[in-house]
TrEMBL record:
GO molecular function annotations of the record: transmembrane transporter activity
Protein name per the record: Major facilitator superfamily permease
Record flagged with keyword Transmembrane: yes
Keywords assigned by UniProt, alphabetized: Membrane, Transmembrane, Transmembrane helix
InterPro entries (UniProt xref): MFS (IPR011701), MFS_dom (IPR020846), MFS_trans_sf (IPR036259)
PROSITE patterns: MFS (PS50850)
Biological source species: Thermococcus paralvinellae
TM stretches of this protein: 12-31, 43-66, 78-98, 104-129, 141-158, 170-190, 235-253, 273-295, 302-321, 333-354, 375-395, 401-421
Length: 442
């Protein structure tokens, strides 16, 4: 691995996250509204919205380990991007076509296939970051690629609003094209380390490799999970528990906030998506500073501060939303207040999200980075499996106003869990570290 930290290379890698974020932002903002056309309850919509996470929790550990073993002239991660990204883009673009035909079976088939192909390449893209970044700079690198992810979400929420108001299908067509172009840039400009671009001398059939990796990856996942729960030192358990809890909170908001905006506040779903866009804007603006803050004062302290900011934002938003729903405050004023709050919430989310993956991967060895990346996403995707149905049940029983209460509770629980983490932190930068952060343009 090149020990010199390269801004250029990390920003180019960030286009992969840019494209993925466009797809998920549009998917979470508008697909629940589409599904409401079929007279489904919020609980059932929540079940549909976890399909991506079911694929992720089953496939990401496997694909992370499989890509660790892959050796081709393109590298070990790139083949998965070349297969998954174009296929996912096609089926994503077909979602509004399925809606136009008012056929639930067609809609479900399109959603399932789109989610399957997104899972094919997501873990390999994510694993590229630690592949090409020295350990002590991973918070900074994760800040940069999360900046690019935030930029993608920003395009989706802000540009998507304008396109959606013209025709509800346009955000899906444009989003699919942008995701394809973004991942093409990654394939063209990111060169994996030379050792991963040399075909293995050991001749193994594809079927044998798949079986071997299946056994080893899920065996590795089993062993890693055993380490999580059996180890006397519980830092890994508590950081993964915290990740699980805060993703339950965040995914419930991401899935149902546009519905909350439409059915509770009485504003257009595209305006609700715009407000989520301000959250993404705050995340994007603060993701790079969040990485440097994590490197300076420590990842744990930065995550704690970020969660505290988000909890305060949620409590204020809950109060304002309740007042608006009861007619005590004008809805247009509450929308403006939400705009400022969500921008601030995005700052907090940047501090949380940017510093969490580096904490997990720094608790293992270089050889197991792909497996631990899969472990990280096992817990985050497990959270996303629980979040939509649980928050959907709350909404069905208590109304859309319960959404913000539900999210706040889980952010608070995550804040408590983080306090028990003792490893995976790097505090302070030496003068030599600062020097090595000078961009390497090679």
């Amino acid at each position: 691995m090149n020990e010199k930290f390269s801004y250029k290379r990390i920003f180019l890698l960030g286009f992969g996250f840019f494209g993925i974020s466009i797809i998920w932002a549009l998917y979470n903002a508008y697909v629940p509204i589409f599904l409401k056309d079929f007279a489904l309850s919020s609980f059932i919509i929540g079940i549909v919205m976890v399909i991506d996470n079911v694929f992720a929790i089953v496939m990401l550990p496997y694909l992370g380990a499989l890509s660790d073993k892959t050796r081709t002239r393109w590298g070990r991660r790139m083949p998965y991007i070349l297969i998954g990204a174009p296929s996912a883009a096609i089926f994503f673009a077909l979602i509004p076509v399925a809606r136009a035909h008012k056929n639930l079976a067609l809609m479900m088939g399109t959603i399932i296939l789109m989610n399957f192909f997104m899972a094919v390449f997501r873990s390999p893209v994510i694993a590229l970051m630690p592949d090409i970044t020295p350990s002590r700079f991973r918070s900074q690198a994760n800040g940069i690629i999360n900046f690019m992810g935030g930029l993608g979400a920003l395009f989706a929420y802000f540009g998507g609003k304008a396109l959606y108001d013209i025709n509800y299908a346009l955000p899906f067509y444009v989003g699919a094209a942008m995701m394809l172009i973004a991942n093409l840039l990654v394939v063209i400009f990111i060169k994996e380390p030379e050792e991963y671009r040399k075909p293995s001398k050991e001749k193994v059939s594809l079927w044998e490799l798949l079986k071997k990796t299946s056994h080893e990856s899920f065996g590795e996942l089993k062993e890693n999970l055993k380490d999580v729960f059996a180890s006397q030192e519980k830092s890994l358990l508590f950081i993964l528990l915290a990740i699980f809890l805060w993703f339950i909170a965040f995914n419930s908001l991401e899935t149902f906030f546009t519905s909350y905006a439409k059915f509770e506040l009485g504003i257009k779903e595209s305006t609700g998506a715009f407000l989520l866009g301000l959250f993404a804007l705050g995340f994007m603006v603060f993701s790079i500073p969040a990485g440097f803050i994590g490197g300076k004062i420590g990842r744990k302290r930065t995550i704690t501060l970020g969660l505290f900011v988000i909890i305060v934002v949620m409590l204020i938003a809950l109060y304002l939303g309740t007042q608006a729903a009861s007619g005590k405050i004008a809805v247009n004023l509450v929308v403006k207040a939400f705009a400022g709050l969500f921008l601030l919430g995005g700052f907090g989310w940047g501090m949380v999200n940017v510093n969490s993956l580096p904490m997990v991967v720094d608790m293992t060895t270089e050889e197991k980075v792909g497996g631990y990346t899969g472990l990280y996403y096992f817990f985050s995707m497990a959270a996303n499996i629980f979040a939509p149905p649980l928050s959907g049940i709350a909404i069905d029983h208590f109304g859309y106003q319960s959404l913000l209460i539900f999210a706040t509770i889980f952010f608070v629980l995550a804040l408590i869990a983080v306090q028990f983490v003792r490893r995976g932190d790097i505090v302070g930068q030496t003068p030599q570290d600062i020097y090595e952060l000078i961009p390497d343009m090679d």
